[in-house]
Hints:
heterodimer; A: 390 residues; alpha+beta; 2 domains; 8-stranded antiparallel β-sheet; elongated; B: 57 residues; mainly alpha
Amino acid sequence: MKSDRSSSQAVGGAAYKRWYWLHKWSSLACTLFLFVLCLTGLPLVFHHEIDHALGNGIEAPAMAAGTPHAPLDRVAAAALAQRPGEAIQYMIWEADEPDLVQVVIGQRADTPPDDTQTVVLDARTAQVLGAPNFNETLIFFLLKLHTDLFLGLPGKLFLGFMGLLFVVAVVSGIAVYGPLMRKLDFGTVRRHKARRIKWLDLHNLLGIATMAWVLVVGGTGVIASLADLALQAWRYDQLAAMIAPYAGKPLPKNPASLDRSMASAVAAADGMVPSFIAFPGTRFSSPHHYAVFMRGEAPLTRHLLKPMLVDAETAGLTDRRELPWYMTALLVSKPLHFGDYGGMPLKIIWGLLDLITLVVLGSGLYLWWVRHRAARPATAARNVAVEVAP
Amino acid sequence: MSTLSTVRRVWGMPLALSGATLFGLLACLLATGIWHVLGWLALAWPLWTVARHSFRR
């Protein structure tokens, strides 16, 4: 207790104490979950490599560059042949896998995502390359732990709140860093003093050197936790306005050609390329439309989407809009959270910063425990000797 | 010691490292080619700083 008092009196007054109190309690409240997030996030940074190493990855066979793509109607038919009588929900092209197309199939158009099956096809030959049971992979398990603790929307919002507490912990940590370091040079590690002092210095050094990255990844993680709410807002806001003229119309009996529908969207998309098609009746479309989401090809715009609504009976374009700001914020925050946008070196940097964050969390917990124990009368006497003098 | 020099001594490195971090994050997000390399180097600086001070004997 004495060392606590003397250190806080030495470094500052009431403002410092308030920040210190905030740092301690916001950290303690979120540390356990931040451990889970950092430990699951580390392998998730390398999910592509891990999936391939475990044999869950699917690659397009080598062919001459520029081999033309098969008609989408053929791709759809080949995918549906795997699950006769079911419904295609989405057709997806990943930016870094241009020759693969993923087709998501469910019993109905509105079957929840966890109960759907993805079929991966060669975009050039419409040949089925595999139907990975993504829901049974290690990466899926880690991803569920990382995003919602297997609890769905409440889990997401809870982790988002933990992320918010973490941001508060970082900001209050920055606020107490200044007073603590007034008499010390940057990076000082008093390794010859008591173990607690050494770890306090390491906690301060590692925390302050990584604060910008931690705030970006923490902040974008909080934004990502609101993805479901943002999507819901978009559906009731922009999507509802776009499909209002079609209210009450049933699912089309004879859907128009996918290729003609895509041609209508591409013709109006100012050089953008398709990211995915949401089929009629899914969460991203109306019962009467193909919603073709186009993306750009520049470094930033490849992450941004623009929905084009195509009448699923006539294949004619009915509406196109820029996504609202909250959806754009969500899309931009995703790469900044995942660190998957700058090649392998960036992923390695992400992994190392994640490890440093784990050390900051662990040392913070240790420092709290030592002080907490010292604050108890029985051990206080023994700790009187431990002073925080530089 | 004046207040200004204390502020500079305490906050100089943290702000420089944060600036490098934000530059690196944005360089990798907004551009390609040489900017990616510059982004990696900028992001490696805080890592190097942490390693240098942590493992110094």
